[in-house]
Amino acid sequence: MPRISYLDFSAEDPERAVNFYNKIFGWQINKWAGPMEYWEIKTGEPNELGIDGGLSKRDKIGQWITPFINVSSVDQYTAKIEAGGGKIIQSKTAIPGIGYTILFKDTESNTMGLFEENKNAK
């Protein structure tokens, strides 16, 4: 069964947000070495209850915190979302060497994402 596994945060000022979350909650936040400006957030130890996430610079209005659901195939779940009345708002996007994502709105206009792990993503 697909589960929410990741939270994507956005911020007007990422460095300010990094300082806030680190100071308030003690989260370990490190700049990602990947092809885009992004910070990885570790909220606890791997065996503890909770979800990790990431932080990016907010580039559009209405972009706040987005939960991502791990799925076996973004393509298969895209079809299910559309058939179930949801709307794809960001088509399949590759994160090179990591996997694929999409963003969608459910029937209640909640924005969520899907993530498919695939080390061959280009």
**Radius of gyration computed on alpha carbons:** 15 Å
Q: H/E order of the elements?
A: EHEEEEHEEE
Q: Strand order, biggest sheet?
A: 2-3-4-1-5-8-7-6
Structural class estimated from helices and strands: alpha+beta
N-end to C-end Cα span: 26 Å
Biggest beta sheet summary: 8 strands, mixed
How many DSSP E strands?
8
Beta-strand content estimate: 35-45%
Describe the structure.
- By secondary structure, this protein is of the alpha+beta class.
- Helix content is 18%, strand content 42%.
- It is built from 2 helices and 8 strands.
- It has helices spanning 14-25, 74-83, and strands at 4-11, 28-31, 39-42, 52-57, 65-70, 87-95, 99-105, 111-117.
- The protein is globular.
- It starts with a strand and ends in a 5-residue tail after the last strand.
- The mean pLDDT is 92.
Quick overview:
The chain has about 120 residues and is an alpha+beta fold. About 20% of the residues lie in helices and about 40% in strands.
List keywords for this structure.
single chain, 122 residues, alpha+beta, 8-stranded mixed β-sheet, 42% strand
